[in-house]
Amino acid sequence: MKEFEFHTKCKGMKLNHLCFADDLLLFYKGNYQSAMLMLRGLQAFSNASGLTTNAGKSNIFSANTVKQELEDLCETTGYKKGALPFRYLGVPFAATKLSAMDCENIAQKADNLWVKWVDHVYMKGVQWKQYKPLVECSWYWRRICSIKDKVKDGYKGNDWQKGGGKYTIQEGYKWMKGEMEDWPWARWIWSNVNIPKHSIICWLAVRQRLLTRERLEKVGVCTETRCEICGESKETIQHLFFECKFSNECLKLLLKWLGKGIQEPDIENVWKKLTRNVKGKMSRKFITATISALIYKIRMVRNKAVWNNKVMHPELICKQIKQECKIKLKMQNIRKEGRNSRNWLEQLYVTD
């Protein structure tokens, strides 16, 4: 966007953010307009991923910013006003050049690296392949060394058995994991188009691990087993997805929006039946993302029915799913899709 202005030191690289684990640093020129554009992008990311910021742990750091604009920004976002300099992962952040004192702790930290400590305390100059831990070593260190001994079996002489004779972490992991059963529905559950929280609930549902009343009755937690949404049948995974009148009605509304049809839907095969004759990778992913969102919403409705005695209308549920899926669709590149597939996706975006 032309209206957005990069931070002076980040303009050359067009850098506006850095991520580390669950931390996010945003950089922009200190004006209100750039800040709001940055926050708008952050909100779009939150809507698409389901991840949100914690205002109580977020701070705004500024230098040479108009005081009133900074106060307005803090009031709008709910973030606190931070003070420079501050430290992140032991590294000082300041508006001025770092002094020798600022860098002293970093230099000292380099002398206390875990690798050097391990070599000094445990290995004492012995090569890793020849090293064997002593009995008095800590249990975690002996555990690490036991993994090393297992990996030795993957070598033939000095060459790794797979991957062209060169060991990599990826090849070592595959070798230790061994042959595993192929789960055909894993592709649609863990699709990169799905919202993560949707994928997790789908995974639990397909693996029959969701805590339905049927399961809770078996462990003695409850005695009532009827579905809280419809009150007609026993609450099982099969009933919730999609034998229940409510979930079946939601599915029909979404299928009408997608222009698809299906008979006798069930949670394990619904994705396969819907994508069987669909051309275009993104089209298939969009359909499965919609089903994942529906499964998540049904679980959410079920929980609210249990705790609040309220059941949302199917049309409202489907409206929420459409909005979420449209946001995800907007972030995808559909130019490589075929003409028919691309037209279908574009039509979904403008259809309610």
TrEMBL record:
Q: Which domain of life is it from?
A: Eukaryota
Q: Which InterPro entries match?
A: RT_dom, RVT-Znf
One Pfam entry name: RVT_1
What are the residue boundaries of the Reverse transcriptase domain, all occurrences included? 1-93
Designated name of the protein: Uncharacterized protein LOC107771233
Q: What is the lineage of its organism?
A: Eukaryota, Viridiplantae, Streptophyta, Embryophyta, Tracheophyta
Chain's gene name: LOC107771233
